[in-house]
Amino acid sequence: MMLSSFTFIAPAANAVSYYPYTIQVGGSTLVQPLAQIWATAFNSVSSGAVSVNYAGVGSTTGIANLESHIYEYAGSDVALTNAQEVALSPKGGIVQFPDALAGAAIIYNVAVTPSSAVLHFNGTVLAAIFLGQIANWQNANITQLNPGVTFPNEAITPTWRTGGSGTTNAFTSFLNKTSGPTGDWQVAYSDGLISTHGCPCYGTTWPIQSVGQGESGSAGVTAGVEGTAGAIGYVDTYYGLNAGLKEAYIKNSAGNYEQPSVATISAAAAADSGIIAHDLTYEITDAPGSTSYPISTYTYALIWGNQTASTCPGATECFQQGYDTVLFLVYAITTGQNFGPGLYYAPLPQAVVTADEARIATINYLGTPFLTFTTNSVSCATSPVTVGKPTICTSTIGAGAPKGTISWSSSSVGTFKATTKVPASGSSRNVYHPTIANTPVTITADYYSSAGTVAGIGTFSLSVSQVTARTVVTCSAIKCSVRVIGYQPTGTVTFSQAGTGVVSFSNSGQCTLVRGSCYVSVSAVSPGSDTIQGTYSGDVNNAAGTPGSRTVNVR
């Protein structure tokens, strides 16, 4: 993956003495691993001018610190309700928008046979487990969902999050939707939301304190499950996989069982992207779609929309710190999304990014927006393009936008000039060289005006296809060689023969390509005419193509 250099431009009003500056933010533990990667990368692209200190203190504390002007923005696993937004309006109003896309995984610690089995659950069974109605792993409701799996006679210990939690919100939202209007969860806990339980916070509290064990944060739940035989819990996907625990398959609205992954979380977001683009607080749990992971969720960035000296967390350069915070958030929802898949986060859908930009454009200091957005249309001349072959990509900025620079990035492996200037025509070109076949590849062009006050982010979905390799075989009295012509081919070639003559190959007739060539030794077995064929196995960049052959006389 190649990340853009991201053009960091301090506004002209900045005093030199303001830098270096540290943005104090925090909240959601779900987004914390990704936010800390954003912070490191942003510090680099700002050449050390701006550091970001993200503290995983939980959504509730994060928003409280934003309200107290300790943080410049807060991360939350759950969006504010309309009533909460209205209550904060007189203080400057909160602007909130999705900044990451993740999933809540069901992890467990039970010794089953075979040990390689990964368990399957539906919402009804999970609700009964966490209500304490299913208390043993040999319960028929569990075994029926897992045919061929043998469970121990062992008590189940449900493990849940203490305090206000957006992950709890996602999990209970899933249980609300899948247990049905007369299901056990609905009957026992109505909607499972803040209004029901009187939670004085912004994340849902676990409603059943008498069943199982409570732990702090996803890290605490992970440790609790890992250390308790028979335990089951819900955590952010990153934590479960990092601990090496198995994550269950969960039944989705189409009746299929899916694990949390970048692909299945993306499928859930894609199914509801049209809704979320118009309602950025919409919950995507139990989304439609055959491959959607049903406990998928967005995390949110919350920031004061109408900033003044009274919303400034203590620094004297209030405009500059607000500007840098906004620039960091733009980085997070654009270039920063490239870091997500490596940490089990799915990239935000483009429709959501566009809606986010509209929200960010409303954030202002004393009525003047920190950043305004213009259109940025991106296209690549050749698509699909064959791996190793260049394609010219063009970014065209909306009419009337001032001069500036484009920072280019790719969601895959490839090279191009990191930044290009925007001439008077408004169109800037770059040559992209893909170095791995991958479909689709997202080409992102981030535009920033020279003054840093106008931005425009555009993307293009580029198809990068394999090369169809050509295999050439040559033979002498002692060996048969093969040369595979393609894009840096790797892999193996298998030799075979047909005809009246017979030869014997060394190494069972196989050789491994080194710089596109390899050979096997041959010895005559019986005379005659023989056709030697070399069949290439192919690799990520090269399709095997037609086998090469050579006819020889065996003497």
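The above is record 1. Record 2 follows with the same two-line structure.
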Amino acid sequence: MFKKPYISGIGGTGIRNIAHYFLELNKTLPKNSKIQIFGSEIKKSEFTEKLKSLGVKIFYSQTAKNIQKIQPDAFFYSQAIEDGEGKEELSEAKKLKISTFKNAEGYYELFKDKKIIAISGAHGKTTTTALTSIIFTASGLDPTCIIGSSIKEFADKNFPDGKSFRLGNGDFVIIEADEYKRNFLALKKIFGLIILNIEHDHPDCYKNINDVKNAFLELAKNVDRKGFILGFMGDKNIEYDFLIKNEFHLPLKIGVSYEKENLFKDNTSFNIRKEVNKNEIQKFFLNLEYGFPTKNLIFNQKNKKNLKNKFLPDIFEFSLETSLIGEKNIINSGIALSTFLTSILISKSQENDYSLEKFVSSKKNLKQNLRFEEIESALKNFSGIYRRQELVGKFNEIPVYDDYAHHPTQISVTILAFLQKFKHIAVIFESHQYKRTKELFDDFVQSFDALIDSTKISNGNFTTSQERGFGKLFLFPVYKVPGRDSDSDFVNHKIFGKKIRDRGVDVEVCESYDDLPKILGQISKENFDCILNLGAGPLSLKLRKLL
């Protein structure tokens, strides 16, 4: 156990859960054995000041002197400091031969003896990690959870608005696995790998989609032979390479399909289907078909006997509800539940000869053992995640939502989801990062097609539906990410706006954050019933301050 950890860039979303971990661990230790926690940041924030009030010593400068003075026994850091102000601290820590851990390296070091469930993909990681976390927690498994954003379900007296970390005593660690700069490869041994989707989301560190896919294939090699890989069958980059081909090794492979598309018949799968209704709550079903899920799973190691047909019915059906918006969140919820069921049944099959027979003797028995009523309630009442379809307030009695969507696929899916619920939405968008916008420019332009009023379309270029709404786009300049963008990749947002307008979208181009009050002044209940802010930049905070 580390007694004097130092966390460089402690306020960053990718590394702050390390601070949460040591604070939680201190609650379990005697007063004379408390861990001394140190950290540094460039500037103060509400989060860093909260940490200081809880006893964390924070330097608001990042120099070698900090490391020389503290002499920590471990140095945790965000990759952002490697080319930023914190690189002097990192260099000094290495010079003094202090153990250093970058991003996921730190989480792996702390939890490598647990069953790590890594949830990966270009989109939906945070939501699916949160949903999986609340399912495992509701079932009584007492997991450790590491999420990329805070949820209210993990709130406590020190963080009443929510946390992104939960420290549990159980066997499972659920972690959001980030592909940026191949960070997730630090997870050297994984019990369960979840792959939601694979896309070219980071052109600043991946050459092309094949380069991205190869990184995920490398990650798949880290799955323990007694573990599993679970992938979404609706993604063409997952189905063949990860679920059908078998180039790396032989963990259990499971496909999750939606509405019976591409049902994975060899290494059997889960299927999600939804019930169409007009209520605020979406209902979906998860079918566990053809027995669970492969002959290799349920294996009596002592007697070398296959127990599959004896103990499992052909079909289990689980019916659940979610208040989250859109089909994508039905899929995320179904994948989260599939992850839970797979983890439980594999673990039970490996424990001893008879535990699985008792656990799955009937559908009723299985649901009781899973504490399924508690899981149903947790999903139905899940309050959502910070900046993921988050209702942040109202303006002129119009609901205002904020969402982190910053990739073309995320943008399109999020808009379509909201247009199933609202009739006329005002979308505010600030593209995040010059290089991403430049590399995916045509995809960005097309991602707003759902806003076109389907009654005014005179050609067949767009896929629209009379049953959904439409909207207007307020487009801000592209946000330049410090340390990751160069001026040579600059994208003119006026040209960006013209290209979108040429496709038939109602667009208003804005010049600066100062235009935000003017935009809100144009919006009334007569012309809009929803305001939706999209993007990963600072515009979100600017909007919230005006509500």
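Residues 262-268, 290-314, 458-466 have pLDDT under 50 and may be disordered.
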